[in-house]
Inverse folding.
């Protein structure tokens, strides 16, 4: 089990094909959530809320809503590459051992200034990513998806979420198949970063 | 230098009082940005753009705009706790050795559906947080701020950002003073997480 930071940062890729049949110990998920709490949030408000779902019926319910949203979104599109892999995930979501729903207690105001909106999401995504990194270090694969948000009301109903709690992302969690954690290809640094002034 | 993932996740707290007088080697910042590139982004589009600013005049310019935005935002408020520490940062921003501006090439549509907005921010904040974790492992303190966005146009002008590039967050970077990386207090897990259904 690798726990070297640089290696974990470089190899926590989206894992959509999990070992569906191997259960995930709740203690592992709780350990990752405990670490996620140390992420920063605006004014340290810690408004993150996490619901970890391992109940088979609830997972099946979320999966049904997720598939509806997925079908609606990609209707009429040819799915290849990442989208094809996303379809496999959508079709198998009920088999994923644990679905973690990342939420925020409180919604952004509809007409909020850019700095408020960015701060809102910047107060939940670092915790989400900490969770995913901690999971990877424990041999658990994850991916980050927001497709389900088109069915947020139905999912809130299913899980009994308070009405002021906003869903942000869904993180399917499972053990990985051998060799899953490789370093993904990325653009060279020069294409995405510059010193002092943007070139051109 | 600690590189154990769990320890880094638990101790990467917001550092607003840096060792202002110790320069930061560009190679250290580049190493952190290289690792940040391995974070996930929607459809692997990698639309993140980072501008690392160490030029003294540009830092002074950003600091001036930042202070204006800060003063405007907190006008008439008593600043204590985190806000007082944020004011110290605002007043000292020109002395921070490196200011990293995290941007996205492309803006969210004003009337975008929640899943699109969440995916937009979820495609930059994991990279931002990876950068901050990598920095912490190298003895560099960071914090995440969005206050400057109220002066985004002036800062874009200063750094020559393309007009379709949206600024998301500013990350001041510097060496820390001894003993800076402690584990912050957080709410207990039970207060922010639940299994299967939200309690109550």
């Amino acid at each position: 089990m690798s726990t070297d930071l640089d290696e974990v940062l470089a190899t926590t890729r989206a894992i959509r094909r999990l070992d569906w049949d191997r259960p995930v110990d709740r203690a592992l998920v709780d350990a990752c959530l405990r670490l996620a709490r140390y992420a920063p949030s605006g004014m340290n408000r810690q408004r993150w809320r996490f619901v970890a779902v391992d109940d088979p019926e609830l997972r099946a319910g979320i999966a049904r809503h997720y598939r509806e949203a997925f079908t609606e979104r990609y209707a009429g599109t040819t799915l290849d590459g990442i989208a094809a892999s996303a379809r496999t995930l959508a079709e198998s979501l009920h088999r994923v051992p644990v679905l973690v729903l990342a939420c925020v207690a409180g919604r952004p105001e509809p007409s909020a200034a850019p700095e408020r909106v960015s701060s809102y999401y910047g107060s939940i995504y670092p915790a989400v990513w900490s969770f995913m990194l901690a999971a990877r270090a424990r041999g658990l694969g994850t991916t980050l998806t927001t497709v389900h948000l088109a069915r947020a009301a139905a999912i809130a109903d299913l899980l009994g979420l308070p009405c002021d709690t906003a869903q942000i992302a869904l993180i399917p969690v499972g053990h990985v198949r051998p060799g899953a954690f490789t370093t993904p290809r990325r653009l060279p640094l020069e294409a995405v970063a510059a010193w002092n002034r943007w070139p051109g």
Observations:
- The first strand of chain A starts at residue 48 and ends at 53.
- The helical segments of chain A are 5-11, 26-36, 56-73, 82-92, 114-122, 125-137, 152-159, 189-192.
- Chain A touches chain B through 83 residues (CB under 8 Å).
- The beta strands of chain A are 48-53, 98-105, 140-142, 165-175, 193-195.
